[in-house]
Every structure is written in structure tokens, then in C-alpha cells.
């Protein structure tokens, strides 16, 4: 029988050993598979990161024509163009060649058609002027000038610019054109806006004629063309305006140009170029036109604590125009679950920069609750404009809370509620909407309870509560340990007594034998 038990025990040990070996084998396989998957994921991540880094580091060249002289170009005469090349990438460009492609009606000698730069560093710009000939039979109007570049032995990349050709040479008019003013609608653009830039040209002559030498000339001013173009990211959607006629002394004319601001354009001042072709070259105008872009919009800030007023509660929100320009049609629309606002929306109308209006809303069917602790008394107003979001203010306040009294069954419960404020307004003809989320707490006093004076009081209560809990835990632990020690001592005494009694009984039995 002992042999059978021994064999059975050996069999069980062998089975356990076999099972352990199987588990170890499976565990090893799982580890290898997990390692392979991890290595694959890591390789994909590194490859993606390397590709992204390579794409980010790839250098890029931006070609811009910043000037042409004369404007417009004249058939049979020389034309000078000033070309800018900017490295907008993060790496250094080596062996960069820029050239003017032969393209009718423009021509250039092969020796003067290209310029090579050994290095163009990231963020730097280089300039070169090219002198072209305009064909004698060039027709009036816009013509394409093709500028090409390549990096090292790479492919040629081409950019096309429009050159205005032709125009009447009016040597009999001696009026003087000036840019009287430049305005825009809106006055300050926001990213994504479309608008109009208004350019007012004036004939600055004061008399109808002027005598030069022995000859008398009229002082009218002829405008052959006007054009606005951009070397920055702002897009001018209007084409050049031709044949605007003659302006009498002291008169003016206003020309509109439509522009589009990209959605992702950063705040700042951007420069457009105005080119005006007058009756002769000496009266042409070339001037920079500045456009400002500001992404700031409307901010909403809770101005005071909600005030119970019978069955209603009054909520006050300050509405501030933080934009550099004026807005129109400003409307504030509050929304909150379980709450009814009167009025349902608050119309302000026009707001100049830094204007502040207070929107007051009455809220129906609202109870108040209060939550202790500084965090529950703080109010956070988060403003969102377009795709960006930022916390704009933190203050202490209260908020009406629907059915707050049912939150924990007490007469003075705590609760929180979120009010969403949608502010709709227009910048020029562009509609915008800012969303602000006001997260607050509220409180209503009763005959048996008073509102804490400040958040510090609530912090003190919280600290005292924590200290009391710690003391209770220490006392409880000490009591349990003492009780455990006492029980162990009694058990030891009882065990010793039993062993002693058993020993005495054996001794007596041996004595009797």
C-alpha cells in the first residue's frame, strides 16, 4: 500500500512538472509574440516620426515678385522686375538656381536670365533684379511672366506672375494723383473674414491749368489702372481695374478691392501693395496698404452672484468687446438644462472696442444649493472662439441650480450648474459666434443656516474635518491593537494551562503504574 501511494505521488509530481513545462513554454511563446508586436508598433512609430520629422525639416522656397518698373510695362521698352526668394522651411537650401523663363512678349539674354545661390538658410531671403525686354508688338493687358527655380540637380519648379502691359501716355495732363485715404470693412479683420479695402484717390491740383515754361497744361489727372496685390498670405480676390478715366482738380474717386483672410492666419499687421498707373510714369503711385488681423472676440464674465427675487433669480453677465475693432448685431443667448431664461436672448447691438455691457436674465423654477470648499465656490469662465479655447477668468460666485434641494435630501444641499452663453455678432458682414461656459455654485439661506462668509471659512472646515478623521483613525487603531494583544495573552495563558494539566495527568498515570 505504501508503494502504491509512493507511485501515485511520483505520478502527480510528474504531471505537475509536465504542466509547469507546458505553461512555461506557452508563457515563452506569449512573451515572444508580445515582444514581436511591441517591436512592430515601435518600428511603425519610429518610421512615422521619422517621416513627419523629415517632412517638417524639408526646406521649401517661396518666390515673390516684389516690384516691377515701369508699371505698366510699355511695348518696345525695358522692364525691371525685383524677385525675392525666401526659405520657409527648417533646413538650409544648397545650390539654388533662379531663372526667368523665355516667354512672349518678354525676353532676356541667357547670360542675365539666371542667378545661383550657394546657400539660402532657413528663414532668410535673397533678392535679385532681372532686366527684360518687352516686345514691340506686345498687346495691352496682363501677360504672364514665368519664374523658375531648382535645388541642386532637382526638377525645375515654376511660379507665374502677371505683368500689366500697355497704357496711354498722356503728356498734356499735369494733375497730381494722391492716395487720400484707405479704409476697410471690417476695419480690423478676424481670421476667416472676407471684406473690402476702399482706396480713395484724389487729384490734388487746386487750379484748372498750370503754366510750365511757355506752355499751359490742364491739371486733370488720368487713371489708367489700379491694382492691389499681396505678397503675404492675404488673398486679393479682385482683379486690376482699368480705364478709370479723368479726375478734375480737387475731385476724388474710391476704388474697392475684395480681400480674403485665411482661417489660420496669425494676429498682426499685413502689407498689401497698391499700384496706380496715371497718365504718365512720373505720376504713377506705388504704396503699401496695411491690414490688421485680430482673433479676439467677445468675452463673457459673471459680474455678480445670482440674486433670489421671489420665485425668480437674477443672473448678471458682463459682455466685453476685446477686439480692436467694432462689432455690430451683438446678441447673447443663455442656455442651461432645466432652466428658463427671461428674456430668452439679450440684444446689445453695436459694440466699440473695450465696450462693456451687462446682460441681466431672470431664471424661473430654480432652487439654490451650496457646496463647501474653495473649489466649489470658484467660478470658471471658459471662452471659445472658433477652434481655440482658453480660460478667461476665475471668481467666486453662485449659480441657480434646478431642483438643488433634491440633490442630497437636506434643506441646504450643494449642487452645481453650467450655463452656456452663445454670443452672436458680426464683424463687417462676417458672422461670428463665441461660446462661453460659466460653471458656478449657488447658495440659499434659511432660518437655521447661514451662508459662509468666504471660501477660506470652508477650507478651514475641511482641514478640521480631516484632522478629526485622522485622530479617530489613530485612536481606533490603538484600541484594536490593544484588544488584539489582550486576546492573544489570554489565549496563551489558556494554552499553557491545558499543556500543564495534560503533563500532570501523564505524571500521575505513570506514578500509579
Key structural traits:
Immunoglobulin-like; 5 domains; 5-stranded antiparallel sheet; 23% helix; 44% strand
What order do the strands of the largest sheet run in, or round the barrel if closed? 24-22-28-29-26-27
Report the biggest beta sheet as strand number plus sense, adding barrel if it closes: 6 strands, antiparallel
Beta fraction of the residues? 35-45%
Broad structural category: alpha+beta
Helix content: 10-25%
Textual characterization of the structure:
With 513 residues, the chain is an alpha+beta fold. It folds into five domains: 1-55; 58-163, Immunoglobulins (Immunoglobulin-like), CATH 2.60.40; 167-295, Immunoglobulin-like (Sandwich); 298-452, Immunoglobulins (Immunoglobulin-like); 462-513. It is built from three helices and 29 strands. The chain has helices at residues 2-57, 374-377, 455-512; strands at 61-69, 78-87, 93-100, 106-107, 114-120, 125-134, 141-151, 157-165, 177-185, 194-203, 209-212, 215-218, 221-230, 235-236, 241-247, 252-260, 268-278, 285-293, 298-302, 307-309, 312-321, 327-335, 340-342, 346-351, 356-364, 378-385, 388-396, 416-427, 430-441. The strands form seven sheets. The protein has a six-stranded antiparallel sheet with strand order 24-22-28-29-26-27. The protein is elongated and about 160 Å long. Mean pLDDT is 75; it is low at 48-57, 367-415 and 441-457. This is S-layer protein.
Amino acid at each position: 500500500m505504501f508503494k502504491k501511494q509512493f507511485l501515485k505521488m511520483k505520478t502527480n509530481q510528474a504531471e505537475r512538472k509536465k504542466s509547469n513545462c507546458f505553461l512555461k513554454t506557452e508563457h515563452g511563446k506569449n512573451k515572444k509574440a508580445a515582444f514581436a508586436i511591441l517591436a512592430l508598433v515601435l518600428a511603425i512609430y519610429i518610421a512615422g516620426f521619422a517621416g513627419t520629422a523629415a517632412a517638417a525639416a524639408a526646406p521649401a522656397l517661396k518666390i515673390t515678385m516684389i516690384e516691377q518698373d515701369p508699371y505698366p510695362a510699355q511695348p518696345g521698352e525695358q522692364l525691371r522686375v525685383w524677385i525675392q526668394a525666401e526659405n520657409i522651411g527648417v533646413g538650409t537650401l544648397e545650390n539654388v538656381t533662379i531663372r526667368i523663363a523665355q516667354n512672349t512678349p518678354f525676353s532676356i539674354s541667357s547670360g542675365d536670365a539666371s542667378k545661383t545661390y550657394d546657400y539660402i538658410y532657413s528663414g532668410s531671403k535673397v533678392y535679385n533684379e532681372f532686366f527684360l525686354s518687352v516686345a514691340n508688338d506686345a498687346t495691352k493687358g496682363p501677360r504672364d511672366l514665368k519664374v523658375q527655380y531648382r535645388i541642386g540637380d532637382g526638377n525645375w519648379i515654376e511660379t507665374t506672375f502677371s505683368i500689366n502691359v500697355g497704357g496711354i501716355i498722356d503728356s498734356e495732363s499735369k494733375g497730381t494723383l494722391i492716395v487720400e485715404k484707405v479704409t476697410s470693412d471690417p476695419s480690423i479683420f478676424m481670421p476667416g473674414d472676407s471684406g473690402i479695402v476702399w482706396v480713395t484717390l484724389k487729384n490734388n491740383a487746386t487750379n484748372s491749368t498750370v503754366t510750365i515754361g511757355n506752355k499751359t497744361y490742364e491739371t486733370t489727372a488720368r487713371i489708367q489702372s489700379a491694382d492691389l496685390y499681396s505678397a503675404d498670405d492675404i488673398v486679393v480676390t479682385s482683379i486690376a481695374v482699368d480705364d478709370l478715366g479723368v479726375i478734375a482738380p480737387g475731385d476724388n474717386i474710391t476704388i474697392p478691392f475684395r480681400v480674403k483672410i485665411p482661417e489660420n492666419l496669425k494676429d498682426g499687421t499685413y502689407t498689401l501693395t497698391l499700384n496706380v498707373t496715371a497718365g504718365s510714369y512720373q505720376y504713377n503711385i506705388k504704396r503699401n496698404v496695411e491690414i490688421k488681423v485680430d482673433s479676439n472676440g467677445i468675452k463673457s464674465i459673471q459680474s455678480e452672484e445670482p440674486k433670489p427675487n421671489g420665485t425668480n433669480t437674477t443672473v448678471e453677465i458682463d459682455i466685453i468687446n476685446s477686439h480692436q475693432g467694432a462689432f455690430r448685431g451683438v446678441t447673447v443667448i443663455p442656455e442651461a438644462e432645466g432652466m428658463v431664461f427671461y428674456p430668452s436672448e439679450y440684444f446689445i447691438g453695436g459694440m466699440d472696442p473695450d465696450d462693456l455691457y451687462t446682460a441681466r436674465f431672470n431664471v424661473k423654477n430654480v432652487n439654490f444649493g451650496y457646496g463647501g470648499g474653495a473649489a466649489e465656490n470658484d467660478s470658471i469662465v471658459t471662452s471659445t472662439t472658433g477652434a481655440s479655447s482658453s480660460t478667461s477668468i476665475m471668481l467666486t460666485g453662485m449659480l441657480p441650480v434646478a431642483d438643488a434641494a433634491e440633490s442630497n435630501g437636506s434643506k441646504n444641499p450643494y449642487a452645481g450648474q453650467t450655463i452656456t452663453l452663445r454670443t452672436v455678432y458680426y464683424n463687417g458682414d462676417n458672422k461670428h459666434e463665441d461660446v462661453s461656459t460659466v460653471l458656478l455654485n449657488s447658495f440659499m439661506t434659511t432660518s437655521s443656516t447661514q451662508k459662509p462668509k468666504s471660501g477660506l471659512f470652508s477650507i478651514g472646515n475641511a482641514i478640521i474635518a480631516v484632522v478629526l478623521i485622522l485622530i479617530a483613525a489613530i485612536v481606533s487603531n490603538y484600541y484594536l491593537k490593544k484588544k488584539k494583544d489582550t486576546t492573544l495573552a489570554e489565549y496563551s495563558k489558556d494554552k499553557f494551562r491545558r499543556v500543564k494539566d495534560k503533563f500532570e495527568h501523564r505524571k500521575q498515570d505513570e506514578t500509579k503504574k
